[in-house]
Design brief:
352 residues, alpha+beta, 2 domains, 12 helices, 44% helix
């Protein structure tokens, strides 16, 4: 949700852009605080070295009206990296005026920097996340950001989708991640990691819609659209292969590397959550896969029960035999009494 509306605006619910423009600054973006414009948040991300921006304007448009922006995310600052407190301020220059911002401004910047549209409502974003952000664990707020602005596997064309299904079976980092105690957004975390590991770009845009909250208060909210960059599937006339062939080759090579590498030692996880993930990664009828898994569990249980029954019987027999043998055996070597007598003799000799 962007903000709540007044009842008088319901009659224009079929014209969300006109309602939106009543609240926008210069008809372009929604800033929140009066001085924290979209450019303010963009400056934060540039100053911290987190994002690289490029602005592209079309023909026959004014200088400051853009058709699309390119946003390359290169670094994510965690709260630990920020400093002692999230309210600790960092300095920057905005419009040649010294100002400051907190960690909360930094978090908000990733979303509010996207609050832009041109006069024709045709603006789109080219987004990409660089793999080097994996240098540190992803903050949970960034995973939440992805749930609105990031893509999912459904947008992948068949060549990419096929490789994605192979990759999730062999990715060591993903397997390790699933053994952690807590993983946010469990259903989509593998898709997030796939797009980031191979820096696959996507096209992002949003449109406003009028609806009602659970309390039946009218509101304006945004609907987000994330699409695959279709240029990657087009043929490059200079190479006669698709523009995305380098991505496909990289993913294929990475899968081969993971598949042939010695497996890492991981704790065995037979939890329902982990087994559900394993089954979801397999092709075929899920109900049959579940039945096969349950049959395998049953066989393993029976084998282990039989093993332990034999082991217990053997241990009882060995314990009984050991008890009888202990009563018959004569200890070899000197007894404690003999050792004490020997030491006493040595002491007496020293006195003499």
């Amino acid at each position: 949700m962007i903000f709540l509306l007044e009842n008088s605006e319901i009659q224009r619910k079929d014209e969300p852009w006109k309602i939106f423009q009543c609240y926008l600054l210069n008809g372009l973006y929604f800033p929140g605080e009066s001085y924290k414009t979209r450019s303010y948040y963009e400056t934060i991300l540039i100053t911290t070295g987190s994002v690289e921006f490029q602005h592209f304007s079309g023909y026959n448009t004014s200088e400051k009206v853009y058709n699309f922006f390119k946003m390359i995310i290169k670094h994510i600052i965690s709260i630990e990296e920020w400093g002692i407190s999230s309210m600790k301020e960092r300095k920057m220059s905005f419009n040649k005026v010294p100002t400051s911002f907190t960690y909360w401004d930094y978090i908000n910047a990733f979303s509010k920097v996207l609050y832009y549209n041109n006069e024709r409502h045709k603006h789109t974003w080219f987004l990409k996340v660089c793999v080097k952000i994996f240098a540190h664990p992803l903050p949970n707020w960034f995973i939440n950001w992805w749930s609105y602005h990031g893509p999912i596997a459904k947008i992948l064309p068949e060549p990419f989708l096929k490789l994605y299904k192979e990759w999730i079976k062999v990715s060591p980092d993903l397997n390790k991640l699933y053994h952690d105690n807590h993983v946010c957004w469990m259903e989509q975390i593998d898709q997030i990691y796939f797009f980031i590991e191979f820096s696959i770009p996507w096209i992002h845009k949003c449109t406003p819609e009028v609806d009602f909250t659970n309390e039946q208060i009218p509101c304006l909210y945004k609907v987000y659209y994330n699409n695959f960059w279709d240029k990657l599937m087009k043929i490059d006339p200079t190479t006669n292969s698709s523009y995305g062939q380098e991505f496909l080759d990289l993913i294929t090579q990475t899968i081969h590397t993971y598949d042939t590498a010695p497996p890492k030692e991981l704790a065995v996880d037979n939890s329902v959550r982990h087994m559900a993930r394993r089954i979801s990664n397999l092709d075929g009828d899920k109900e049959d896969l579940i039945n096969n898994y349950m049959n395998e569990v049953q066989r393993n249980l029976l084998l282990n029960i039989t093993h332990y029954e034999k082991s217990d019987t053997s241990m009882r027999s060995e314990t009984s035999d050991d008890t009888r043998d202990d009563t018959k055996e004569v200890p070899s070597g000197p007894t404690l009494k003999e050792t004490e007598d020997f030491l006493l003799v040595l002491t007496d000799k020293d006195k003499i």
